[in-house]
Amino acid sequence: MPYEQQVIDLGHDDEGPVVATVIRRRAESATRRAVLYIHGYVDYFFQTHVADFYVERGWDFYAIDLRKYGRSLLPHQTPNFCRSITEYFPELDEAARIIRADGHDSVLLAAHSTGGLIAPLWAHARRADGLIAGLFLNSPFFDFNVGWFLRRPGVSVVGGLARARPYRIVPLGLASAYGQSLHIDHRGAWDYDLRWKPIGGFPVRAGWLRAIQHAQRRLRAGLDIRVPILVATSAESYRHRNWAPEAMSRDAVLDVNHMARWAPGLGRHITVVRIDGGLHDLTLSAPDVRAEVFSELDRWLAAYVAGERSAGTAPTPHAGAPADAG
Q: Which of 20, 26, 248, 219 is nearest to 137 (CA)?
């Protein structure tokens, strides 16, 4: 089935015009159920095997490349930058409007990493709308993967700097070990656009760091999401900046214990599962690990979201996105 794209005009900010991009793939039969996928930091939608999973089970699949990410990144923009997580709410609201207009009245939010921070905050803010049926959070970014001093006083100091110099680069960039474990040109199995997802990430800016700090503080204070939530993490974190074989079977970006610690505060119905051998994006793990992720998701959907197990088989493992997804 082909992919379609729709560009959302979001007006202007201090850097100029702003857009977001919705990518859609329909199931073979008409359905009132849909998935909205929200990517992570230094990321964009290319995981077409994830779309396969949902489409084969009778869900229409939507993904969004948020402003200043992936297909939505314009030449004049600072990649992946925001001053507040709420800046993403207008494009999520518009994506929800598009999904409703397409005839859907039940939406699963599937979100990874920073998307897994944005999605609960948006779902909490829109909980009265009745559209969202569940959340699947894949290695959500609930806390910084640094020691306590840097997580709390240190990040607060940088947050103060952000008021005066939001675009200033701070020394908290991503290590290359994770990217090396993913991309086919290095040690991984996945082919994606390195302009949009570089191996070492993009520079971290003070304004973005402050936005994440405020969002995490709000999430850790407790949310009231009234639909089932599945939080999935790797069983272990990889705690070195340089690559080693263990980086191929652990979360090399975040601390998995933070995710389990803060998950219960999201709402009233929380399931947490830890996946042995999982990478930070669990759906990009080795084929057997990926199969376990999809199996856990399948059971959870059937029990709490879909009402009954939909027909379909596990998606065939493959690497990268086809040309019509771009």
A: 219
Element (DSSP H or E) covering residue 55: helix 48-56
pLDDT at residue 160 tops 50: yes
List the one residue out of 109, 40, 55 whose CA is nearest residue 279. 40
Contact 113, 141 (CB under 8 A): yes
Rg (CA), the chain: 18
Average pLDDT, the chain: 91
**Continuous segment of H or E residues that includes residue 124:** helix 115-125
Contact present, 35 and 66 (Cβ < 8 Å): no
Minimal CA–CA distance to 119: which of 215, 17, 208, 252? 215
Give how far the C-alpha of residue 124 lies from the chain's centroid of Cα atoms, to the nearest Å: 17
Q: pTM to 2 decimals?
A: 0.92
The residue type of 320 is G
CB-based burial of residue 160 (10 Å sphere; 0-12 exposed, 13-18 middle, 19+ buried)? exposed
Render pLDDT for 37-62 as a digit per residue (tens, 0 to 9).
999 999 999 999 999 999 999 999 99
